[in-house]
Amino acid sequence: MLGFPAPDGCSPEAEWGPQGTLAAAVERLARAIAWCASPSPRAPSPLIAEVYRWWYRGRGLDADRLLVDSFILMDPWWTLRLGAVPFWMKFDTEVSAAALERYLDACEPYDEIRLMLFAHGVDSIGLAPIERWRGLLARARAHGRFVGVDEKAYPADFATFARYHSALRALRGRFPLPPPLGSDQLETSLAQSDVAARAGVTIRDAD
Question: What is the pLDDT of residues 119-160, one digit of tens each?
Fold first, then answer.
């Protein structure tokens, strides 16, 4: 029988946050320049989606396609090539489903919604069932579809990690990669959008 050391405390996983001293130093640096404070990693997702939508429309694109990323399932390059508006979810839980729902309630409707789901293998507490995600996809005015998801196998759909990239490549539409979004453009987009307040994101100027 294998032995293991006794636990010496109850702590979150390292990936969910740094030591307090590092966090304080990062916050001091952010305050010295300009900063975006949010209550959780997922909180800026509505704001970022609206910035992309504003940016795409300025480039003459329709900005009517939403691509919902899930945890590590994302592809920034193909997001830009497809002219898709990104919305990142921390995980495919009820909390994330509710965040996406609030965004869809607040924003202009999308013609197309595409959704990826991170498969962690267990029908665990708090995981949103596949029916919940189907309901959110139905919010699209024209097409709501999963990307690389085997609905019958979810949440044990491990092949999605190899499948989602090819599924993205198979989607219609190709657009040139844009130059980086400039800070002036970002400030303009933020000034023209009230999504930041609805998303609970505070934008502050440097002191």
Answer: 988 888 889 999 999 999 999 999 999 999 999 999 999 999
Count of beta carbons in the 10 Å neighbourhood of residue 127: 19
Among residues 121, 114, 124, which one has the least CA distance to residue 148? 114
Contact 138, 113 (CB under 8 A): no
Q: Find tokens 């990693």 and name the residue.
A: 41
Half-sphere exposure of residue 170: CA atoms within 13 angstroms, side-chain side = 10
Confidence of residue 80 (pLDDT cuts 50, 70, 90): very high
